[in-house]
Write a structure and sequence with these properties.
Elements: H1 2-22, H2 28-51, H3 60-87, H4 90-110, E1 126-127, E2 130-131, H5 133-136
Antiparallel strand pairs: 1-2
Length: about 150
């Protein structure tokens, strides 16, 4: 009886560990969404800090314009994150996720900077309209020397 109880307890413990390990896997899209959420939080924090500056501060307006541009880019990137899995598959989808991850990283890098102060440019596969789905779906094999900077 005692051995049966030990085996049952050990079996339940093993099942619980296996379930918890498999339940912790995160998709690439979820990773990028977490990055997006962190960047959004950083944008909001910086905007609050800038809004606390006196209205007579000559950089206040420029900073707010800069942050508004970054917030717009962030919103467009989020639309791409939601849309990409519906329009792309396989390597094209993975490439889109690479581009979006870089976009969110560039936004985060550029938050504390003023325009022209060493700001990083967005990847070429992401423009004013968002992800360039046509380029992402191109049949040609990409290499590091292509404009996107990504390879399949």
């Amino acid at each position: 009886m005692h051995h049966t109880l030990q085996r049952a307890t050990l079996g339940l413990l093993l099942i619980a560990v296996l379930v918890s390990l498999t339940g912790c896997s995160v998709t690439r899209k979820q990773e990028i969404k977490r990055l997006s959420n962190r960047v959004e939080s950083d944008l909001k924090s910086e905007q609050r800090a800038v809004l606390k500056r006196p209205t007579t501060d000559p950089e206040r307006s420029q900073r707010l314009d800069h942050l508004t541009t970054l917030k717009t880019t962030h919103s467009v990137a989020n639309v791409g994150l939601a849309t990409a899995p519906r329009l792309l598959a396989g390597d094209d989808l993975l490439l889109a996720y690479d581009v979006l991850e870089e976009v969110f990283g560039v936004i985060d890098w550029n938050i504390p900077l003023m325009p022209g102060e060493g700001t990083k440019p967005l990847p070429t596969m992401f423009g004013p309209g968002g992800l360039n789905f046509s380029a992402l779906q191109a049949d040609s094999v990409r290499s590091p020397s292509t404009p996107s900077g990504y390879s399949r």
